[in-house]
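User: Predict the complex with threonylcarbamoyladenylate.
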Amino acid sequence: MTPSSFISAKAAAAALVSGHIVALPTETVYGLAARALDADAVHRIFLRKGRPADNPVIVHVASMQQAQGIAEVSSVAERLMQAFWPGPLTVVLPAKPSVPDVVTAGLSTVAVRQPSHPVFQEVLLLVGEPLAAPSANPSGQPSPTCAEHVLADYAGEVPVVDGGPCVVGVESTVVQPFDDRIVLLRPGSITRQHIAAATGLPVTDADQEQRAASPGTRYRHYAPHARVRLCNSQAEVVACLAARSAQPTKVLVLSPSRLDVDVPQRLLQRATLYDELRSADQLAVEEILVHCDADVRADEALMDRLERAAEPASSNS
Ligand code: TXA
Ligand code: MG
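Assistant: Here is the predicted structure with threonylcarbamoyladenylate placed in the model:
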């Protein structure tokens, strides 16, 4: 196996069994995978990402039965899994003692999900064990949504299985189920309305303690180098353009619909958001004006990523 090349699913499984880390496609974003029960291998993920040790990683499983091997699956959790697995829903559950501390960041819970991407499923079956996998980007950068993003981020030093562009494009919804409610820790393409409808339980926001236990929600994420400004209307975009500090060529507009402005514009949608942020950086764009119309503002997952991308770098923790 040459470390700088694309590898097959079979080669990836063999590398994982030997304790190495590899990047794999999921339907949401590419993940940097290691065997979840091998603490040393998971530790190597943290080193590769520059990830703070207090940020736990998601464990990917082949089935609900495999989830039951590492976590206590309540009846509410089972309902969630039946409704949304395989798919972009991560469920935070009490961890069994076999789960290494490096995976949970020392918490009593573990986050699990069954991805729907056929390549990730194939590797899970070949390895026969759960795989820990955070998004395959250096901490704080936009998540990778195609194999080329991973190669670029790690200068070809992390082997990657090419599974094409991710269809969802933003990270999974993360929830913590209780008997009487579901706490939403990170919005994703499975919305609070979907979850409430499937379980008949109220979906509530995380309180301060729960937010502290899900540190990924604390860090500045998904951020390009360009300054990102959110505008609620075409008129606001036009006003920002009039007041801009950057050259016209250094400004990009992201919008769900074509606007009547004379700077380059690209389509705003979940599936390609991170690719657009990355492309803007490659073109040395200094300012990205994002047109958040009413539909965009109603999309909790998209707004969450946009608001994080728009935060000033100094708010990084
Ligand atoms: O779509 C996804 O979820 C992708 C793909 C690769 O599966 N993975 C991903 O992982 O986004 P990562 O590490 O970038 O985000 C994991 C999120 C973080 O916000 C983390 O804090 C939270 O899940 N998390 C993990 N374990 C947790 C736990 N035990 N309790 C609360 N939150 C947890
Ligand atoms: Mg991430």
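The CA atoms of residues 1 and 11 lie 8 Å apart.
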